[in-house]
Amino acid sequence: MARFMESGHYAAHLRQMRLVYAERRDALLDSLKREAPGVLRIGTAEAGMHVTAFLAEGLQDEAVIARTDARRLGARRLSPLYLGRKREQGLVLGFSGASPAGLRAAVRTLCGVLDGPNR
């Protein structure tokens, strides 16, 4: 590992992965903004490997996740991550393990869940 780092390969790897993850994040954010306006409000997404998406009034993350799990989307509930009484309803959406095309397809599937029956 020391040689890998000293040779500059590690720094090059980090630069490359930063570009890969930025492309994936941008694909997810662009798709969410285009496909889910009014249903999801996107949180700050300047760092990390996930995006926080707050659900529109009346939607419960527990019910949404029950439907997304059946479609293997890998979204997580936001509300259990809050301390205290006020718990925002939302989703935590990771992007590091999917291609931009895969993320766009996942957003379309998610929107089908959000627009579907028992919303």
From TrEMBL:
Domain of life: Bacteria
Name of the featured protein: GntR family transcriptional regulator
Organism: Myxococcus llanfairpwllgwyngyllgogerychwyrndrobwllllantysiliogogogochensis
